[in-house]
Specification:
The structure holds 3 protein chains of 3 kinds. In chain A, 38% of the residues lie in helices and 18% in strands. Chain A has helices at residues 54-66, 161-178, 218-237, 283-292, 297-306, 311-319, 321-333, 341-349, 359-370, 376-389, 393-400, 410-422, 424-431, 439-448, 455-466, and strands at residues 4-15, 52-53, 70-71, 78-81, 91-94, 101-102, 105-106, 109-118, 122-128, 136-141, 148-154, 190-200, 210-212, 246-250, 255-258, 271-272. In chain B, strands 2-3 form a two-stranded antiparallel sheet. Classes of the chains: A alpha+beta, B alpha+beta, C alpha/beta. The structure holds magnesium ion and zinc ion.
């Protein structure tokens, strides 16, 4: 039986988080009453003209720089002509043969292009209407119409639904940290279509692809691709052939249904938008974008990994950039000897919220633990106090009496002796050849010392006193 | 010469219903116009000539990202042939029709 | 005080001067023209104000247009006033905003007294394509006024308004101006904002004035022009537009393109043109023959580019947000197709079909793409010509006003009306048509064009020629014709 390799490319639409629409001054807003954010331009009134939003271009340049795309020296807008009620002018202003950004990559996936365009309005289905004889009606709300969109198209570099999902999360984080969008799939500000084909493993020619439309969550994207790959493989193995079509994935049933093929082939009659002039990024525009560019998640993950953090931890700190910044500040605050970054990250991981603890205090706590002045268990208690109240770790240790007990301390030896006498049954089991039973003695000892005792030292004392 | 099917196809793309009479009339007229327009073919090879889509030689005419007042919904809907529920009512597009963006 | 009927004989600039000097009451001027317009028998208007007094906001102190009312082509959006672009599909449409050009005129002091009839969506050369009926030529009411701004041209010629504005895409100001014996100026593309002008072909459309003389044209252009943040393709003039004063053409090198004269021009029109060239020489101009080698292909290129753009610009008329809706069979596709079938007239349909065809898959390169290349060649032709001459002169239209119905059966014959005006439109350069004497008792036009933003030079030359030609186009003369 042949093995099949899935080949997947994504087409992502991202609503840009500008204040106003792509081609008019209407404010972007969600959840308002219908048709309260419209004007002659976004309603497509006769005589109105579009003017490009400078900030949308800036966001486009940010993305282009972030992904290492080639920025077009002179990009133009086209009209994509088709009739649909959510399209006020009968055409969408979009970019066609000269997009703002070409090429580039994010992580291990190459980008094909990024272009700017305008979003469509919202059609709300009304159900049967009395007025139009038994026919269904819809109501158009043009509030969303004209929202700036970036369309990001990847090369077919993805090989599984899981990888697609992971990559889309990386894209979302990158766009979020670039500040160009709130990238919320549930609100539709991030929308993803997938082109899926399969081919015999080891071959390079592309198979016939299908297009999965509008998978509106990361989980659906993965499940949809998985289902489609399975369908295509089964089809080919059964002697059939994949037909190029657009499919709708139903996450409840896991089924894929073709969207009824158009009564006529698409013929968008693209031509250069005569109402707009070319966008030619100037040195000033590029400089502004360069200055605004933060470190990108993929770079940050790589940098954390190089510091010795495991991938998962590097990602977690990257996805939550404030914690990443805290982590780095704590590393900077640490004195000599420098702790392993991984140890600092682990300590940070022990508290879901940083609360009142400062990076300095965390670094101080790590230093105390590493020097053996505070045990790991006591350190957690110190951390809790620092998160709740703030302050210096040394002060907290002093005040709460959480300093590590001296290993030669007679007090500890006496305590061990007392606990041994209080647990004859455990001693019996240990002597009977079960050294692991010693663990049962550790609990009471650590409890009585509030975790200040060094665990290894306590174990050694137990073994010495029992002579095992 | 434009075939009847070509005229029908183009009319459909343009969302123009044509009567039988119009189909005959426009078919003939369009053919004549297209034949005449074909004279631009007589200029021969234009491979080295760049297209002019616009005579305005400026770039980067951009708008600051500052909100401007929108129309009141009442005004936006004022001229609508069928306003309902705060929106513009239309017959529902069938499933699988073109979708936006 | 100046009263009727004398005040109706004044040019716009003269009336404005009298108003400023307190010799003319602008309200009296308004009432006189409102009454003239309301009594129109040429079908020049699609709307006439019924206000007894002019809009007070237009009578701002010291405005250069000083309360002299203006007629505005139907396709300019005017808030709350029907703006129908001569089309059934927009019948009764009252937009919620006003076009920049009209707003600027009003701010300069010119209140809108009437909306003028036009070919539907500015598509036509005879004004016979209006959903509101044809306009008649005041020189001979059995003849057309030209188009598409026929209502504006005829209204100015008949003295129903002191001046008017229209739009020119391939000749729609210059050609009707010629056929009606008035001055028509198409400015440089981008000179006047297109915001609020219901679009025909966006890369070509340009608004401009219809006036009784060249000075008035300069005055209206001054008020209308200027970059507009709402129109990304608008540009400010590098130097202010001035009222012309030249009385001769000394030092002016005038080129006469071989391709746009002689063959194809009616003999009477050519004779008038030749006489004016002699006059120009007499006034000191150096007249030379030049060549615009690609001008013969301009018309075909134009009749690809303009319909292609219009097929897209007119897609918004879909029965959803405004205008006519015809339910058809009740489904969406049927509603679209039935609405557009009922709302558009035959010429608009024809052009939508041609444009859709020219842009459709597999034809773009051979048609639209190639037409854009021809456009480059034509622009280069002008560039080369203007290296050797200052201005170019041609007859404005190949013939005089023709009988109503004479060319409606043959679209190509109708399109040939634009033969002399379309090359300038494709190159985006300015052109003026001034009355150039009569042929067979009907007006002919002389076109002068120059490089982009050479309006001042064109106006000066036109002024000198106008003065020397001493054409009597007064409403009284027109009425007597
Ligand atoms: Mg798109
Ligand atoms: Zn808007």
């Amino acid at each position: 039986m042949t093995d099949f390799e899935p080949v997947i490319g994504l087409e992502i639409h991202v609503q840009l988080g500008t204040r106003t629409k792509m081609f008019c001054g209407c404010a972007l807003a969600f959840g308002d009453d219908p048709n309260v954010h419209t004007c002659p331009v976004c309603l497509g009134l006769p005589g109105s003209l579009p003017v490009v939003n400078a900030e949308a271009i800036h966001y486009g340049l940010l993305m282009g720089l972030a992904f290492g795309c080639e920025l077009a020296p002179r990009s133009i807008f086209h009209r994509k002509n088709y009739f649909y009620p959510d399209l006020a002018k009968g055409y969408q202003i979009s970019q066609y043969d000269v997009p703002l950004c070409a090429g580039g990559r994010l992580g291990d996936v190459r980008l094909h292009r990024i272009h700017l365009e305008e979003d469509a309005a919202k059609l709300v289905h009304e159900g049967s209407s009395g007025r139009i004889h038994g026919a269904d009606a819809s109501v158009v709300d043009y509030n969303r119409g004209g929202t700036p969109l970036a369309e990001i198209v990847t090369e077919p570099d993805l090989r599984s639904g899981e990888q697609a999902r992971e990559w889309l999360i990386l894209l979302r984080e990158t766009l979020r940290q670039l500040g160009v969008s709130d990238v919320d799939m549930s609100q539709g500000s991030l929308r993803c279509d997938a082109n899926v084909s399969v081919r015999p493993a080891g071959t390079t020619a592309l198979g016939t692809k299908t297009e999965l439309k509008n998978m509106n969550s990361f989980a659906y994207l993965e499940a949809g691709i998985r289902a489609e790959v399975a369908r295509q493989v089964a089809l080919i193995e059964g002697g059939g052939a994949v037909v190029q079509e657009t499919l709708h994935f139903d996450p409840r049933t896991g089924s894929l249904t073709p969207l009824r093929s158009k009564e006529e082939a698409h013929d968008y009659r693209y031509f250069p938008e005569p109402d707009l002039v070319p966008v030619a990024p100037t040195p000033e525009m590029l400089e502004r974008a360069r200055t605004a560019l933060p470190e990108l998640p993929a770079d940050r993950i790589a940098r954390y990994e190089a510091l010795g953090l495991p991938t998962e931890q590097a990602r977690t700190l990257t996805w939550r950039p404030q914690r990443g910044a805290f982590f780095e500040a704590a590393l900077d605050a640490a004195g000599e000897p420098a702790p392993a970054p991984r140890v600092v990250a682990n300590w940070l991981e022990r508290t879901p919220e940083t609360g009142a603890v400062t990076p300095d205090a965390l670094a101080g706590l790590v230093a105390l633990v590493e020097a053996g002045q505070v045990t790991g268990d006591a350190g957690r208690r110190v951390l809790e106090v620092l998160v709740a109240e703030g302050g210096e770790p040394a002060t907290v240790v002093e005040r709460e009496g959480l300093g590590a007990m001296d290993g030669d301390d007679a007090e500890l030896e006496a305590l061990v002796a007392r606990v041994i006498t209080e647990h004859p049954d455990v001693v019996e089991r240990i002597r009977g050849g079960n050294p692991k039973a010693a663990g049962a003695l550790m609990g009471p000892i650590m409890r009585e010392t509030k975790g200040r005792a060094d665990g290894a030292r306590v174990q050694a004392l137990i073994r010495a006193q029992l002579g095992v | 010469m434009l075939s009847r099917d070509q005229v029908l196809h183009v009319a459909r793309l343009a969302r123009l219903e044509l009567s039988e009479d119009e189909l005959d009339r426009f078919g003939g007229e369009l053919s004549r116009v297209v034949e005449w327009i074909d004279t631009i073919g007589e200029l021969g090879d234009l491979e080295d000539v760049p297209p002019t889509s616009h005579v305005v030689a400026v770039e980067n005419v951009l708008r600051p990202d500052e909100p401007r007042p929108s129309l009141p919904a009442r005004v936006a809907l004022d001229q609508a042939p069928d306003a309902a529920d705060g929106g513009f009512r239309v017959p529902s597009p069938g499933a699988g029709s073109e979708t936006g963006a | 005080m100046i009263r009727r009927p004398e005040l109706l004989e004044l040019t716009g600039a003269q009336a404005a001067r009298h108003v400023r000097e307190g010799e003319l009451d602008p309200a009296e001027l308004w009432r006189a023209y409102r009454a003239r317009a309301a009594a129109d028998e040429l079908n020049c208007f699609t709307w006439v104000s019924d206000e007894a007094e002019p809009d007070p906001s237009a009578l701002a102190e010291g405005g250069p247009l000083a309360g002299v009312p203006v007629g505005v082509k139907d396709l300019f959006c005017t808030q709350g006033i029907p703006s129908q672009a001569g089309s059934r599909i927009l019948e009764g449409y009252r937009p919620p905003y006003t076009a920049t050009a009209v707003r600027r005129l009003r701010e300069a002091g010119a209140p809108v007294v009437a909306k003028t009839n036009q070919d539907e969506f500015a598509m036509g050369s005879s004004n016979e394509n209006s959903a509101f009926g044809p306009v008649r030529n005041p020189w001979d009411t059995t003849r057309v006024p030209g188009g598409s701004s026929g209502g504006s041209a005829a209204a100015v010629a008949a003295g129903l308004v002191p001046w008017a504005i229209g739009t020119d895409t391939g000749g729609s100001i210059r050609q009707p101006a010629a056929l009606c014996g008035v001055v028509g100026l198409k400015p440089t593309y981008g000179s006047v904002s297109r915001y609020g002008m219901i679009a025909f072909a966006s890369s070509l459309d340009q608004a401009g004035p219809f006036t009784r003389d060249v000075t008035d044209a300069a005055l209206l252009l001054q008020a209308m022009q200027g970059a507009d943040p709402a129109d990304a393709t608008s540009l400010g003039h590098p130097e202010p537009v001035r009222a012309p004063g030249a009385t001769d053409l000394r030092g002016v090198r005038l080129g006469v393109p071989d391709e746009l004269t002689g063959e194809g021009i009616e003999p009477g029109v050519q004779a008038s043109f030749d006489a004016s060239l002699d006059l120009a020489r007499h006034l000191g101009a150096e007249v030379t023959t030049i060549s615009l080698p690609h001008a013969p292909q301009a018309l075909a290129a134009y009749y690809l580019i303009a319909p292609a753009e219009c097929s897209s610009n007119l897609a918004r008329f879909d029965g959803v947000r405004y205008g006519l809706r015809v339910p058809g069979d009740g489904d969406l596709l049927s509603m679209y197709s039935a609405t557009r079938a009922a709302g558009f007239g035959p010429e608009v349909k024809r052009r939508i079909l041609i444009g859709t065809y020219a842009l459709s898959s597999g034809y773009y390169d051979a048609y639209y793409g190639r037409a854009q290349q021809v456009r480059t060649l034509i622009a280069r032709d002008f560039e080369a010509a203007f290296a050797g001459v200052d201005l170019i002169a041609t007859p404005t239209a190949p013939g005089v006003a023709f009988e109503l119905g004479a060319k409606t059966a043959d679209p190509v014959a109708m399109y040939l009306n634009d033969y002399c005006t379309v090359p300038m439109s494709l190159a985006g350069i300015p052109g003026i048509s001034i009355p150039n004497g009569l042929s067979e008792g009907l007006p002919t036009g002389l076109q002068l064009c120059g490089p982009a933003f050479s309006e001042n030079r064109i106006l000066e030359a036109a002024h000198a020629l106008e003065r020397a030609l001493a054409f009597d186009g007064s409403p009284a003369r027109v009425a007597a014709a």
